[in-house]
Design goal:
The protein has 163 residues and is of the alpha/beta class. Helices cover 41% and strands 27% of the residues.
Length: 163
């Protein structure tokens, strides 16, 4: 069995969460970034997992666009989705309000892996917005290892059922 984790990671935290997840999966894993071009042939993958940061209750537009453009091919796989967000929104609500029902109805697992902000990487406008939203002015990162381990265990069970 093979898994691909497809991320959109503006400042690197979501990609870091994907790497942690990949370490806990029993299958062979590729990590692909939507911020770079890659082959969109998913025939070799059994599991497809998406990861996206959340800003103001919204997933990155790049993630949403990719899913809409590839929905038919994606819906033939075991699908998972994780978000990285400090916002106290429900993961189900974030995913449902951003993605098409035809996709969300096929998701077998959803998770929230924490958040990270590196003020050194932010533009001036992003710094101001982040200070308002987070009510802090310094870098901070919280990677929820327990959530990642629980998500990975569920993905690993997909592989056992499918063999």
């Amino acid at each position: 069995m093979k898994t691909v984790i497809i991320v959109s990671s503006r400042h690197g935290f979501t990609e870091k969460a994907a790497e942690k997840l990949s370490e806990k999966l029993n299958s062979l894993v590729d990590i692909k970034s939507l911020d770079k071009n890659f082959e969109r042939d998913f025939s070799e993958y059994h599991n497809i997992i998406f990861g996206s940061p959340v800003y103001g209750g919204k997933l990155r537009p790049l993630t949403v666009k990719f899913i809409k453009e590839n929905i038919e091919q994606l819906n033939t796989k075991n699908l998972g989705f994780f978000v990285c967000s400090k916002e106290n929104n429900n993961v189900e609500k974030i995913i449902a309000s951003n993605l098409p029902n035809a996709f969300t109805e096929q998701l077998k697992i959803k998770g929230e892996f924490g958040y990270g902000v590196n003020f050194d990487q932010l533009s001036g406008v992003e710094k101001v917005a982040t200070r308002i939203i987070m009510k802090k002015g310094e870098s901070e990162a919280i990677l929820k290892e327990d959530n990642i381990a629980e998500f990975a265990e569920k993905v690993n069970q997909f592989d056992l059922i499918s063999r």
